[in-house]
Amino acid sequence: MHHGVARPAEIKEACGVCGGWAEGSPIAYLTCFALYALQHRGQESAGIAVARGGETGSGIWLRRDSGLVAEVFPDLGELRNRPGSLAVGHVRYGYGREGKDPENAQPLLLRYRHGELAVAHNGHLLNGAALREELEEQGAIFQTGTDSELLAHLIARQGDAAVEEALAAVAPRLQGAFAFILTDGRKVVGLRDRHGFRPLSLAALGDSGFYLASETCAFDAIGAGFIREVVPGEMVILDDAGLRSRQVLERAGTSLCLFEYIYFARPDSNLQGRNVHLARRELGRRLAREHPADADIVTGVPDSSIAAASGFAEQAGLPYEMALVKNRYIGRTFIQPTRRMREEGVDLKLNAVQKIVEGKRVVIVDDSIVRGTTSLKLVRMMRRAGAREVHLRISSPPVIASCYYGIDTPDSRELLASSRTPAEIAGFLHADSIGYLSLAGTIKAVGLPEAQLCRACFTGRYPVACGGHHA
Ligand code: AMP
Fold first, then answer.
1. How far, in Å, CA of 460 to CA of 395, rounded?
2. CATH 3.60.20.10 region(s) of the chain?
3. Atom 3 in ligand 1: which residue has the minimum CA distance?
4. From the CB of 144, is ligand 1 less than 6 Å away?
5. Residue 384 CB–ligand 1 contact under 6 Å
6. CATH code of domain 275-446
7. If pLDDT is split at 50, 70 and 90, which confidence band does 401 have?
């Protein structure tokens, strides 16, 4: 069947994963800290699996539920006292109806003939639907829509009782973007896809332990020392013998998602040796050179665009002002005001500071435009607060193609830039001008060779073509 460029029906994820082994450390407690540090990567659900490790395999303890880390783990004291040498954690960014379903919270715990498996992942298997169909035809029953459950089924079907061998055997069947962390209660195993689309790093923890996490900011939160990134296609095994590594998939270079630098990752994280905040400031500087604006002040959209806005202001020689204030206390369950209310200026999340923008020509720097909902709101808000002119500057190229690898970019028809020129977009958003950073400028700002970054959402050319989806 030909699917065109429509988004696949199964759910996709851009989550945060972590997990490690450390004898004598309160590993469950530390994993909760790591999840707090990764909370920006997903707010739908959180979970931690803990086990004592060793050959006895005394059973895996698990808690997972919908909600923020603080909601799912309100009692840190309980985690602190939980015995264990190993843990796996997950925060979930789910979208669509199924994405919000609590049964899809991870890690998933499955019991099979060789024992237990707790599995968490970040990413999206391009051939997930095909693999699922194949297993269902053979009688498999799936409880969730997650790729983690799919992986557990594939592992369980391998004859080998050793999880490491079973994973190595099924790994070549997995296509797409993924960082898996799983445990059988005896060891923790991490696996990164052969393109390295999703980030995964390795650190030393305590005297002889090791820890894996999507972002290095999680290591800072638990006092772990960064060692290196997990190599694309590499499997790492953490247990009482220390750290082992196996290249189980042929490495295809690194194609880390460019959006990690633009928007996803936390500014205090480093990816491929580049600090995210510094990369964003450079995006802003280049944006100011490519698209200068005749204006009085520059402001960023909190929190993700502040670094780029400060770089823009610095390069342009304009004052950076905090003209937009974000309310940080609005929870997940907040119900958006209706469209009519929004048009009348009802907004709890963001507010423009009238005394700063009144009568001014304002540059708003935002990191990206996807559907355009945010930009439309920002321009309207600025004008209502009395701005004389509003110039939008975007510190990334126009997003023209949806992502197959797990990032929440909708069907390309819903992407504002997929069928409009920048001038048409400025008109649509009622902005006095708009300027997007070029792809070449974006890559230069990040400072890595172009081939090391996945740029598909800006080019429509995908590093891996799959099934009915054409590249
Ligand atoms: P939109 O309002 O649809 O144009 O989305 C763009 C805004 O959402 C920007 O302000 C970004 O900071 C943020 N953003 C960009 N990409 C994503 C994403 N994949 N998921 C959630 N928010 C995003």
1. 19
2. 16-254
3. 371
4. no
5. no
6. 3.40.50.2020
7. very high
Question: Residue 70 pLDDT more than 70?
Answer: yes
Return d(Cα 175, Cα 129) in angstroms, integer.
11
Which tens digit of pLDDT belongs to each residue from 23-69? 989 999 999 999 999 999 999 999 999 999 877 656 999 999 999 99
CB 184 within 8 A of CB 54: no
- CA 33, CA 22: separation in Å to the nearest integer? 15
Tell me which residue has its CA closest to atom 18 in ligand 1.
408
With H, G, I as helix, E, B as strand and everything else as coil, classify residue 39.
helix
For residue 234 and ligand 1, the question of a CB distance below 6 A is answered with no
> Residue 358 Cα, ligand 1 centroid: separation in angstroms?
27
* 206-243 residue pLDDT tens: 999 999 999 999 999 999 999 999 999 999 999 999 99
463 CA distance to ligand 1 middle (Å): 23
Question: Is residue 32 flagged as an active site residue?
Answer: no
Domain with CATH 3.40.50.2020 in the chain: 275-446
Q: Provide the pLDDT for residue 468.
A: 35
Residue of 278, 262, 323 whose CA lies nearest to 298? 323
406 alpha carbon – ligand 1 mean position (Å)? 14
Domain 16-254 classified CATH 3.60.20.10? yes
Is it true that the peptide bond before 147 is cis, omega within 30 degrees of 0?
no
Is any atom of ligand 1 closer than 6 Å to the C-beta of 13? no
Answer yes or no: is the C-beta of 407 below 6 A from any ligand 1 atom.
yes
